[in-house]
Amino acid sequence: MARASKRSRAAAWGLVALLALAAIALWRDPFLLVRGEFARQRVAAGLSSGTLQAAGHRWTYAYRDADTQDAPVIVMIHGFTGSKENWYPLADALGGRYRLLIPDLPGWGASERKPGAVYGFPEQAANVDAFIRALSPGTPVVLLGHSMGGGIAALAAARHPRDISKLGLLDAAGVRFKDNRFGLDVLAGRNPFGVDDEASLQRYIDIVFHDANAKPWLPWPASTALIRKRRADAAFEQGVLDRIGRSSEALLPGEEAARIRQPTLLLWCRQDAVIDASALDLYAQRIPQARKVLLDGCGHMSLMEQPAQVADAVVKLVDPEGAAR
Questions:
Q1: Which of 305, 269, 253 is nearest to 121 (CA)?
Q2: Per-residue burial over 217-242, b = 16 or more CB atoms within 10 Å of its CB, e = otherwise
Q3: What is the spatial distance between Cα 287 and Cα 284, in angstroms, rounded to a whole number?
Q4: What secondary structure letter does DSSP report for 297?
Q5: pTM of whole model > 0.85?
Q6: Vertex 272: Cα angle to 266 and 274 (nearest 5)
Q7: ∠ CA(187), CA(80), CA(120), 5° rounding?
Q8: b/e map of 63-82 (b: 16 or more CB within 10 Å)?
Q9: With respect to CATH, is domain 31-324 assigned 3.40.50.300?
């Protein structure tokens, strides 16, 4: 009985010690919770992590090999203030059908940001093409882009058609869509995605998500760490937004979309409060061969709010005959 009591006390003290170490780790690095959750999602989706040098930058990316060796390659490009992790629900929904390459764009996420470098639409389109050439040399890829990443993907497909076999634009920037609060704020020089306190963090989440069940839960101290990071990134974010949102290059993806000849998917959510769904038809006017998909019950983050429906649309883009069987 005494031995059992001693073992219980030892186990209790061990648990206390572990909790103390966890508290110290979180105190030193509150973002540890966020990174841990991202790692959990990555593993759950069957993805691994990698790094490479391309276009003069160090890239961090997630990847997964396909179940079959000759499967198509899909590259996924995130949006403004986003990261590769935005694509994990879709990657999970796609299973092992395709080889997946999901980078953090230069300047964003865990990829390198160079002081003084320009990260607008033309620069990032060239960066993405360099990434494709590095990891899929000689094999054209299916390129998916979301939001800002959609504008980048459209420009890359127009300018580098030999490297991109098919294109998917999800809630994509780059055309003059119907006025909404977000767009008017951008044109006025503001950053509607700016985060500097708990209230603005919640406002940011509420803008990009329509489905309350899909909104991420950010408990303290993860929320504090994210706010601190977004404050530090505020000047960078504003500089990028000034370029892609209200400079002479803001509508460049839509203008050059008329040169896109690849099979294309245009996918929007009806309740998108960022890139209004009117943008779908504007892109379709320039890409007449495109297939249009308008989802209901989701906002700007279609890839996270309705990953199964987006996966179905992507499968039909990649292999329309197989999807029909």
A1: 253
A2: ebeebbbebbbeebeebeeebbebbe
A3: 5
A4: S
A5: yes
A6: 100
A7: 75
A8: bbebeeeebbbbbbbbbbbb
A9: no
Beta-carbon count within 10 A of 319 CB: 17
CA quadruple 39, 45, 48, 49: dihedral positive or negative?
A: negative
Within the chain, what is the greatest distance between any pair of CA atoms?
Answer: 81
Q: How far is Cα 132 from Cα 140, in angstroms, rounded to an integer?
A: 8
Strand ranges in 207-325 using DSSP code E only, listed in sequence order: 264-269, 291-295
User: Tens digits of per-residue pLDDT, 47-85?
Assistant: 999 999 999 999 999 999 999 999 999 999 999 999 999
Residue 5 neighbours by CB distance under 10 Å:
9
Listed by start position, the domains of the chain span: 31-324
Q: pLDDT tens digits, residue range 123-156? A: 999 999 999 999 999 999 999 999 999 999 999 9
* Residue keyed to tokens 């983050």: 301
Nearest alpha carbon to residue 100 among 74, 129, 77, 130: 74
How buried is 137 (Cβ within 10 angstroms: 0-12 exposed, 13-18 middle, 19+ buried)?
exposed
**For helices 148-159 and 234-246, angle between their N-to-C axes, nearest 10 degrees:** 50
Return the structure tokens found at 214. Answer: 């899909």
Cis omega (within 30 of 0) on the bond before 221? yes
Residues 92, 106: Cα–Cα separation, whole Å: 24
Q: Provide the token pair at 94.
A: 């796609």
